[in-house]
Amino acid sequence: MSRGMNDYEILAELDELLANAESDDEFGFDDTFPLDDDIQTQDCDNDEIFEIDIDPHQSPSTPEIRPITCLQKPRNIPKVKTKKKQGLTTPNFKWKSGPFKPNIHEFDSSESGIKKIEFELGENSPVIDFFECFFTPSLLGKVAFETNRYYRQNTENQDLGDRDKRWYDTTSEEMYLFIAINMLMARNKKLELQEYWSTDPLLYTPIFGQIMSRNRYQILLRYIHFTNNEHQAANDRLYKIKMVLNEVKKNFRDAMVPFQSLVIDESLLLWKGRLSFKQFIRTKRHRFGIKFFILCDVETDFILDFVIYTGKTTELKACDVNLGQSGAVVCTLLRGYLKKGRTLFTDNWYTSPLLSTYLHKNKTNSCGTVRKTRRGMPELKNKLKIGETQSLHTNKMLAMRWLDRRDVYMLTTCFTDKMLCTGKTDIENKNIRKPDCIIKYNESMGSVDKTDMLLSSVECVRKTIKWYKKVYFHLIDMSLLNSYSAYKQVTGKNPPLADFQLTLIRQIMDRYKSTVKSPKLYRKKDDELLQGKKKHFLSEVQSTAQGKFARRRCVICSINKKRKDTKYFCKECKVGLCAVPCFELYHKNK
């Protein structure tokens, strides 16, 4: 510091010294945090500055710094505007270099797997029993009840068409057949819905007509419903499908005790119509649609839980405000799975030092890619060559930067940055080496994308103008995938998913087709026909205004290519007919 500097110039120079310092210890700052040894919070008001007094008898290089007091800044010094969210604190972690020894929480896998006893599943259980663990008869009974009520609400005091007049109440057994038809449609590609029941030799597929008539399927597809519209809750965007969502999510959680490794990622259900919470994700196959946050078991690809994103109204568990929305998603999906020693893998939208610290306190390991701009991340700016790493760590977590084709940032509490062979070779036949945490991340992170890939070939989702119907069909696909995973665990068999789905369709038909009896529309009896014939009488054609006899051409004679006029006609049918025998022939073969 030079002579003649005013107080604020000295303050600016001190700020520069603080910014360039390697650690805060040489300035006497306290590095303790009330909740964690690795975190220091600084809550400073923007209007507070240091008050510095310079003793004239003292050297200018050693100013006296008194405790912090509030001073009003001069007007000639511009105030820098900073974005500061209410309730958020900026953490300062004590990052250091050197070897990292992770404190890994142990996991007991003795109870992991499908709950066979509760669901009465065994090696000889049929495929349909596994599916009914998730789409239960009671759930489809509720769907049938709401469908019948929705039909009555929409047809009351209205003129009905021929199809609506033939409605009769549906049942849970018929709802299973409805599901089977939708699954079977995914295996038989046709351009229009009516073509599945077409009698054209080029399109004829008799199995659809044997399960259900075309008119019955179309009217069920039109009126299928899942809630009572008269009691719709305000500000609940998922109200239309809420009942099915809650039932399916509960069945997913109750059926499985997950293994050690879990993964959270997004999945997108295609939807390009108008919807207030429609999302766009560039890296997904569909890009536009309804976003699902999915928790998946890595070892079995079993979907444990999911959350549908609806904007500000997304149902998330309350958690620490510092974790943000991504941390709230993790807390919501992991409820019931914390403090067991499991390992969670996430991508850079979720991973942060604060979240890793929160999970570590709850005895849960974590690993994932991370954005270098996350609050609390250290600066890793060394010049690296391809394949080299730079890392810093605290007592609990490791932050690493690895240069591959581009910079890759990782944050983990259970793996190291040690370089290991992947078992693959490059073009020059050299072993490819990667950090330990990246190898584990690549092995585990693809579970959600794998489920999307498996469903892409057998999904029964079909185009509809009602978004909640499409979500319903997607829940059927998710239940199919979970039943497939449970079937492989319990029986030890590993059939292709397409064969598993075909077996499920066949067993649904065998179990429920005989129980569903639709009312038959009988033809009129002979006496009813005779009564109808008595209404038809011969009448003479009225004469013209000039008094001449008017005549009409006989319909039967015209069919037989004979020209014959007659003075008689049927008043009901309004056609000309000869008295004998054309009148009888016409009404008999009408």
How confident is the prediction overall: mean pLDDT? 82
Portion of residues in beta strands equals 15-25%
Biggest sheet overview: 9 strands, mixed
How many beta-strand elements? 22
The total count of helices amounts to 18
Low-pLDDT stretches are 21-37, 39-74, 77-83, 521-533
Question: Which bin fits the share of residues in helices?
Answer: 25-40%
Q: What is the C-alpha radius of gyration, as a whole number of Å?
A: 37 Å
Describe the structure.
With 590 residues, the protein is α+β, with helices and mostly antiparallel strands. It is 32% helix and 16% strand. It is built from 18 helices and 22 strands. The chain has helices spanning 7-20, 116-119, 127-132, 137-155, 162-165, 172-187, 206-211, 214-223, 242-255, 324-333, 353-361, 436-444, 447-455, 467-491, 497-512, 526-533, 555-559, 582-588; strands at 39-42, 52-53, 64-65, 90-93, 113-114, 256-257, 261-270, 279-280, 288-297, 303-308, 343-346, 365-369, 389-393, 398-403, 407-412, 419-425, 431-435, 538-540, 552-553, 565-566, 568-570, 575-576. Strand 14 and strand 15 form a beta hairpin. Mean pLDDT is 82; it is low at 21-37, 39-74, 77-83 and 521-533.
